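In response to the reviewer comment on reproducibility (Comment 2.3), we provide here a single inverse folding case reported in full, input and output, so that an independent group could reproduce the run without further information from us. The structure tokens appear first.
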């Protein structure tokens, strides 16, 4: 859902006048909830078994935006780009972005053209992996600028999704800082996975405000109040509202600094299935008050 101002129309003002005070306040200051989104990797097993049926269930839960990924069937799940868009739209889902698998620049150009044809907004690099030298990350920054230029040519945006390793020092520097400094803000955006930012001891709010306009997308999952033991095979993640992250603050800070797209992506399912977790997170977002 796009942010609105109270001057949108006289009709909107009239509606606000008869609405509850919290809703009116949200309208007056332009504070509206972001559209509820979900990264399809969260329900990857369900998508692999029944992509159409899974999309239908996500739409019924109230999600309106989706982010795909480079599955074995491709980002369009065995369909053409236009076929997949039609299916998703039929369930009330807008394919905003996708994570993509490693590819050459010519292959990336082709993917960008397909994404642009159906009105997608972003192509996102999901993984670089830990590196031995900081210079390697400088090389990655150069590559991101090239891919960002390709996206711009097609009317898209390019993004990078940091995991935990960019917040770990390499040669005395943080890769996330090197990537932010080495990429052209006109070409490259970032997708903050707030779970990793918090668990690595960084301050998500400081990064969002210091680099205003760079973090345009987010992945959201909560952090357990009591972390799992070191070396655990599972991450210390939990459903939204069950851990330590203040998502009201996170979303407000993000919106105030250019963040537009928010995707749920859970990685640990405790006594629940991925679809049950998706449902629980959809309910949480629906009930979340930003004002």
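Designed residues, in position order:
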């Amino acid at each position: 859902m796009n942010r609105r101002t109270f001057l949108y129309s006289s009709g909107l003002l009239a509606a606000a006048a008869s609405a509850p005070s919290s809703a009116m306040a949200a309208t007056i200051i332009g504070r509206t909830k972001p559209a509820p989104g979900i990264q399809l990797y969260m329900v990857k097993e369900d998508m692999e078994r029944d992509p159409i049926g899974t999309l239908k269930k996500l739409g019924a839960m109230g999600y309106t935006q989706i982010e795909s990924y480079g599955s074995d069937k491709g980002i369009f799940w065995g369909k053409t780009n236009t076929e997949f868009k039609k299916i998703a739209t039929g369930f009330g889902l807008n394919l905003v972005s996708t994570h993509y698998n490693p590819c050459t620049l010519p292959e990336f150009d082709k993917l960008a053209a397909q994404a642009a044809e159906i009105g997608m907004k972003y192509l996102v690099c999901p993984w670089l992996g830990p590196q031995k030298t900081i210079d390697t990350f400088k090389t990655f920054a150069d590559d991101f600028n090239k891919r960002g230029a390709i996206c711009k040519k097609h009317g898209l945006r390019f993004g990078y999704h940091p995991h935990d390793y960019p917040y770990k020092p390499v040669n005395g520097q943080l890769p996330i800082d090197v990537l932010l400094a080495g990429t052209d803000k006109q070409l490259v955006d970032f997708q903050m996975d707030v779970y990793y930012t918090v668990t690595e001891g960084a301050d998500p709010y400081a990064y969002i405000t210091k680099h205003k306009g760079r973090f345009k997308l987010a992945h959201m999952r909560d952090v357990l109040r009591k972390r799992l033991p070191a070396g655990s095979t599972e991450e210390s993640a939990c459903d939204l509202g069950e851990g330590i992250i203040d998502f009201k603050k996170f979303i407000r800070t993000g919106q105030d600094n250019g963040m537009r797209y928010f995707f749920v992506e859970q990685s640990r399912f405790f006594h629940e299935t991925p679809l049950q977790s998706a449902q629980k997170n959809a309910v949480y977002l629906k009930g979340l008050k930003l004002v």
